[in-house]
Amino acid sequence: MGDMTATPGTGAMPGLDAAEQRAWQNFLDASLRLYATLNRSLVETHQLTLNDVRLLDILDRSPAGCERMGDVADELLSLPSRVTRQIHRLESQQLVTRSPSPDDGRAVLATITPSGRARLREAIETYGEGVRANFVGKLSKPQVVAMGENCRRIIAALQTDPSPARLGRV
């Protein structure tokens, strides 16, 4: 069991020993800094956020170039209202369109436009370069493989764990 000698006010997390806490904090800091770095680069270069690129990529990978907005929100791990605002902003840039679903009148489809595909292709290059420079390029091939496998295990556990603790946020 982890080190339970945490002193209040020291930032120690009960239940985690020093190595576990350091590993978690390093992972969290690296993730947040990497996200912020990639996001800043995409906004400065393409006027698209990292989440915009992810959303456009979801639509681009769809066989019909469109998805139900609720499904997009699920895939982005985002709130439907946040995705609605994001789609509205991308629609104003003529990168996506919205339309009622022909199969379900209650659902709304988001569709990537030709302009959206063109902007995505440009942004994906910048995104890939940023991932290589700031993530893959900082690790050896075995470290990249291990990181990928460890993250896959965490994702798999979170996808099957029905407990409220899996939704905890820091």
TrEMBL record:
InterPro entries, per this entry?
HTH_MarR-typ, MarR/SlyA-like, WH-like_DNA-bd_sf, WH_DNA-bd_sf
User: Domain named HTH marR-type: which ranges?
Assistant: 20-156
- Pfam families given in the database record: MarR (PF01047)
Task: Extract the PANTHER family matched here.
Answer: MARR FAMILY REGULATORY PROTEIN, TRANSCRIPTIONAL REGULATOR, MARR FAMILY
Record protein name field:
MarR family transcriptional regulator
**Lineage, top ranks:** Bacteria, Bacillati, Actinomycetota, Actinomycetes, Mycobacteriales
